[in-house]
Amino acid sequence: MVKKEVTIMxxxxxxxxxxxxxxxxCHMVADSDEELLSMAxxxxxxxxxxxxxxxxxxxxxxxxxxxxxxxxAGAVEISRKExxxxxxxxxxxxxxxxxxxxRYRKRLRxxxxxxVL
Length: 117
Prior knowledge:
- The chain is of the alpha+beta class.
- It has one domain (11-110).
- It is built from 4 helices and 5 strands, in the order E-E-E-H-E-H-E-H-H.
- Strands 1, 2, 3, 4 and 5 form a 5-stranded mixed beta sheet that branches.
- The longest helix has 16 residues, at 80-95.
């Protein structure tokens, strides 16, 4: 008897209804790009529609018919507010690794120059 490994994907679909020409669209996001691309392949969305790949804003805009297929394939429905929290967490995670300027240099860079009298 051969046991199959079951991989659990966490892909999220928001409840936004944005019109784009004759279609109604929503967002599909995931914890990683691999999971997102795997779901896109599974529901028949072309990889060229992947927006902001490799960043914390990585997502697909999908139409409602593809949304129904994604939910049947195991995607989790979330609200727009929850999607915002999801993206905010990703943004904060990326900021931790960014090198910051000391405070005094930041202030000097943004100070207005006074005219010489």
